[in-house]
Backbone:
């Protein structure tokens, strides 16, 4: 695999960016940086989902036009991701003109193939989810996500013959066991497919909703939000031309949370089949964040704003917490005191300490200049092995979306390096002039460990990776490309900078 096309959901503009959106963004940004550093041709897509009932309602509540409202919140999403240092390659908006044309083109194509028909439908509709629910999907008569009873909606609409594709979809899932991962979500989709699949209502009459993309074959209707939104993944790729589309689209890796599994695991692949477009490569599904055990919600007043967290703790500390505290695929719980203790323990005491101790000893004993390195002793080999092992474990975990385990593997490496300082005791050896060559070797090994640490940590904590390289006074280009052989990363006589505290210890916030 030499290419990858990574996507996040496009977020509804009826809410401001919060912890949940940020988690998906951080996961995908980490994956994108990891892939780029390994030399993969990587494209990272995100954006905003701007049509539909609930956006029109939210705009109405502020007295803005839907477009002015969507412009404002979409800009807010973009500026939040920019402030968090998320490096996406394209930001799509469903109100973009090329997207509108693409959606209409696909609708025409699916219609031409005979997969769209006009009919009447009555059903239970949840505006929060923008979809119809079957009676049995409800919990106590309410939408399981929004905990409100869906409205009974009965109207004439256009339908997509989703049912036609049920067997093909089932066969695809069976032939590709890790297509939807982790497995629990694959099983959930198989569960949906155990029952006969109904056709999908894909329109809304303009008499009820104007804020959408017109059906090209009947201007009295607009498309249903999901038919519009899901196509963002392909319209953004098509915008870059045929060669890009043909090369990147089949390498699509979608990242979503479990709340939108059905649209991505059922509607989307069947839509692609009907449009004659190849299927995506993987659907990667993560769990949901709660806040101190509660669902995050405006009404509970516990919505976590990412920029408030990064202002308080720094971007990398926040990223670290999100990636380290959750197991991809499972739910996770946000607690500020856990964030603080992880940052103090893992970042300040382990990683940060290694950097500052190494640099200060190089300053103290060699005025910042890297000394000669002589014959390695067994402990030196062990240190080298710790970093080779960390690199290969990280690789293995990243293949399986084990972000937390990759970070654990990395910190086992830096922990080993801290122990190496304790075991080799350069500060004691330095008291005897005859031991200075050995002290030099130890510090060379530690500087090498820092270079490897910078490269390994950078996809997860980009600022930290960059800052370590800066302290080592080497070019940021050294973050990518093949790893240098141990001992060959930095030259004798190269001057390192004076130490700084990368992660000052955070005092517990007064409650
Ligand atoms: N617009 C649709 C997606 C269309 S994609 C073709 C949508 N938008 S959303 O704004 O509601 O975003 C849902 C996504 O936000 C989730 O799938 C997940 O990526 C992220 N999260 C929102 N809340 C979350 C949590 N509490 N926890 C984890 N992720 C969450 O659905």
Residues:
């Amino acid at each position: 695999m030499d290419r990858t096309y990574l996507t996040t959901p496009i977020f509804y503009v009826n809410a401001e960016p919060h912890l949940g959106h940020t988690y998906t963004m951080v996961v995908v940004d980490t994956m994108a940086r990891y892939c780029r550093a390994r030399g993969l041709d990587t494209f990272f897509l995100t954006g905003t989902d701007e049509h539909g009932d609930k956006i029109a309602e939210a705009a109405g509540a502020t007295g803005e036009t839907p477009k002015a409202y969507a412009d404002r919140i979409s800009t807010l999403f973009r500026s939040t991701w920019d402030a968090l240092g998320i490096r996406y390659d394209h930001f799509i908006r469903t109100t973009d003109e090329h997207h509108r044309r693409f959606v209409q083109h696909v609708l025409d194509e699916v219609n031409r193939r005979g997969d769209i028909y006009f009919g009447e439908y009555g059903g239970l509709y949840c505006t929060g989810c923008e979809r119809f629910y079957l009676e049995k999907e409800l919990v106590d008569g309410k939408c399981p996500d929004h905990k409100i009873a869906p409205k009974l909606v009965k109207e004439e609409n256009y339908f997509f013959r989703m049912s036609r594709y049920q067997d093909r979809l089932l066969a695809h899932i069976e032939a590709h066991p890790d297509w939807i991962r982790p497995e629990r979500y694959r099983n959930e989709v198989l569960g949906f497919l155990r029952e006969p699949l109904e056709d999908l209502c894909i329109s809304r009459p303009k008499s009820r909703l104007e804020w959408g993309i017109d059906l090209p074959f009947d201007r009295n209707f607009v498309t249903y939000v999901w038919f519009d939104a899901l196509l963002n993944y392909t319209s953004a790729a098509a915008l870059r031309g045929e060669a890009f589309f043909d090369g990147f689209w089949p390498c699509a890796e979608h990242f979503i949370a479990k709340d939108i599994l059905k649209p991505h695991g059922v509607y989307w692949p069947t839509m692609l089949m009907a449009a004659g477009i190849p299927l995506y490569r993987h659907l990667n599904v993560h769990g949901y964040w709660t806040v101190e055990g509660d669902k995050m919600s405006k009404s509970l007043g516990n919505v976590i704003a990412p920029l408030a967290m990064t202002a308080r703790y720094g971007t990398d500390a926040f990223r670290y917490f999100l990636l380290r505290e959750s197991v991809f695929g499972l739910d996770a719980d946000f607690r500020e005191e856990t964030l603080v203790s992880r940052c103090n323990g893992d970042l300040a005491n382990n990683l940060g300490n290694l950097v500052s101790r190494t640099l200060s000893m190089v300053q103290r004993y060699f005025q910042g200049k890297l000394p000669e390195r002589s014959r390695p002793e067994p402990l030196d080999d062990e240190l080298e092995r710790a970093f080779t092992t960390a690199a290969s474990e990280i690789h293995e975990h990243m293949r399986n979306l084990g972000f937390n385990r990759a970070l654990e593997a990395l910190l086992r490496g830096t922990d080993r390096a801290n122990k190496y300082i304790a075991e080799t005791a350069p500060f004691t050896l330095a008291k005897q002039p005859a031991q200075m060559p050995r002290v030099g070797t130890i510090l060379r090994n530690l500087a090498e460990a820092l270079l490897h640490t910078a490269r390994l940590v950078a996809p997860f904590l980009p600022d930290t990776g960059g800052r370590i390289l800066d302290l080592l006074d080497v070019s940021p280009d050294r973050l990518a490309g093949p790893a240098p052989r141990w001992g060959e990363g930095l030259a004798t006589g190269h001057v390192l900078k004076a130490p700084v505290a990368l992660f000052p210890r955070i005092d517990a916030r007064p409650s």
